[in-house]
Amino acid sequence: MKIGIIGTGSMSQSLGGAWTRAGHDVRIGGRRDGTLRAAAAHGELVLLAVPAPAAPLVAADLAGTLAGRIVLDCTNPIEPGPEGPMLTGSVPARIAEAAPEAAVVKAFNVCHASIWTLDPPVFEGTPLTVPYCAATRPAGERVAALIASMGCTAADCGGLDRAPYLEATAALAIGVWFAGGPVRAIFPEPAQC
Ligand SMILES: NC(=O)c1ccc[n+]([C@@H]2O[C@H](COP(=O)([O-])OP(=O)(O)OC[C@H]3O[C@@H](n4cnc5c(N)ncnc54)[C@H](OP(=O)(O)O)[C@@H]3O)[C@@H](O)[C@H]2O)c1
What we know:
It is a single chain. This protein is of the alpha/beta class. It has one domain: 3-Layer(aba) Sandwich (Rossmann fold), CATH 3.40.50. The protein has helices at 10-21, 36-42, 55-61, 63-66, 92-98, 137-149, 163-178, and strands at 2-6, 25-29, 45-48, 70-73, 78-81, 84-87, 103-107, 122-123, 126-127, 129-134, 153-159. The chain has a seven-stranded mixed beta sheet, sandwiched between helices. Strands 5-6 form a two-stranded antiparallel sheet. A two-stranded antiparallel ribbon has the order 8-9. The longest helix is centred in the C-terminal third of the chain and has 16 residues, at 163-178. The termini are far apart.
């Protein structure tokens, strides 16, 4: 799969590395050397690995190039609050408005960037699961194939109208994690009766 990555920071490096290990053709673009558009043009799938407030602005700038492509949104729109991270407004609908001919998929926002350096991507004996919410079924299926190619399990969490739940899940988990709480123990499967 040809993948473009917008941004050169932590998520760009860790997910770019995971996708390269999985055999994908990855091109990273940064604003400092003016390579954003070339990266977007490279990918059938384009990851916006930039701060949440910047994502819709970048999408608007690149809207023509993003037309017909899948735009992956991994952003977490949060800012510090007195009791932990607070949501500042959901991002994927704003990306979709800015680049209306792209198919937006929210994914990869729940785990810390360092998790994508795990090789293989297995946690306590279980492949990592990546939840995603997709604007269209074909776009969701492509992203599910990408997730599977990494050795992870894809979890279809519905359409883009459900993406705010992924953002809220991350905000809650990050708050617990920063407070030193046992994030992993929050989501155990039901006990067998
Ligand atoms: N880090 C994590 O563990 C993690 C986990 C899940 C989700 N996320 C989300 O992933 C996104 C990226 O996080 P990160 O940790 O990779 O951030 P980061 O390391 O700070 O990198 C951000 C990148 O975005 C670029 N950028 C900033 N504003 C831009 C603009 N207006 N136009 C173009 N490029 C711009 C920066 O370019 P410059 O270098 O030129 O400033 C940099 O390359 C964020 O939305 C974050 O919420 C992060």
